[in-house]
Predict the structure.
Amino acid sequence: MNILSLLLPPRVRLAADSRLAGAPLARWFTRGDALPAAAVGRETVIREFFQFAGTRIPVAALTRQADCGDAAGFTWLRADPAHVRADMATARMLACGELGLSAEDCAELLRPLKPLFGDSGFPIDAARPSRWYLRAPTGAKLPAFVPPEQALGDDLRLHLPEGDEGRRWRSLLNEAQIVLHNHPLNQQRAARGQLPVNSLWFWGAGSLPDWVKSPLSRVLSRDEALAALAARAKVAVVAPRPGELAGFDGHTLIDLDDAQSLGELGAHWLPLAENALGSKRVAELRLYLASGERAVVRPGHRWRFWRRVRPLRA
C-alpha cells in the first residue's frame, strides 16, 4: 500500500494564511478521519516514524556523523555560533548557526575558546562554519538543552539549563561570551556591518544510536538532523524540490514544517498530494501537524458531502 505523509506547520500558522486555511487542507481535515492528537512539536512526529534507543533525538551526534563520520563512541553537543543583543532588562538571541563565517573566521574565533572548553573536558571544533561541536565522554551527564528556534528572540534566561547540572553550563556560556565579546574579529565584523559572534548555543546533546528503524521508504526534508536520522535507518533521503516527487512506492514522508516550505506549500505540495490522492496513486494521505493534530484521508472520503467544509481556525 502506498502512503504519503505530510509533516506540516502548527495549525495556528496554517490558519493565519488564507491561501492555506481553505481547500484542500480544510476539506481533508473535515472529510478525513481525525486521529488522536499527540504532544506538540515536530520531534514527536519524527519519533513516530523512527525508532531508536533514547528519549530525545541526538541531533549533535547525527549531524556530526554526517559531517565527519567520527561520532561513534562519544556524546556530542552542538555549540553553534550565535549573536546575542542585550537591552536594559535582558539579553535575546537574534541569530544562531548561519552567520556568514568562513573557515578562517571559525579558526580565529575558536583559538581562545579551545583552552576554555578543553580544560573543562569538552573539546570544541567547527565541522562547518554554522555547526560547532563539543565532544563529551560517553555517559557524561548533561542537562536538558532547547533547540535554538525555541530561544530565538526570547529572553535567554528562560531557556538556559537549570539546576545544579545547568550551573556549570551557564558558567561556561558566560565565560565564552566574555572571550567572544573581546575578540578582535568581532570588532572587525561590527565595523563591516556584520553581526558579531558574541555567544554560543548549546543544544542537541546525545550519542549516535546503534540502530534506527523506520517504516518509511523515502524522506524529503531540508532538516539535516532528520536527513541524518533517515540515512541511519537506510531510508532514501531527497532534498524537497517544489512539486517534484518521482513515484509514490511504499511510504513517503515530506517534511514541510519550515519557513521555506511554507511559501511552497499551497502552490506546489498540496496540489501534488491532492492529485496523488485523487488519482489513487496513494491509498492514504496522512497529515501530521507540529501542533499535535493528526488525520488520515483516503480517496473515498471525498464523497462525504454531508460534512460541511470550513476554513481551518487556530
